[in-house]
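User:
Note these tokens:
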Amino acid sequence: MFRAQNVPAEMLQPLIMIECPRLLFPFAREIVANAVRNGGFPPLLLDPVDFVALYQQRAAQEQSPQATTASPS
């Protein structure tokens, strides 16, 4: 779906994990809302997602086990 060109290696993961979902989410949200409505169910609107916060939480979780294994016990 996306082509990343001339993106520095250190920026590739944030681009894929933050900007790509941010661009796709409104379309996915509308598809879900339409499918639920067309199915005869009450409206379902997905709340906006903060992809930056999710990325930061994941990065912190990945670093915290490394920090605990690196410290002497």
About this structure: The two ends are 46 Å apart (CA to CA).
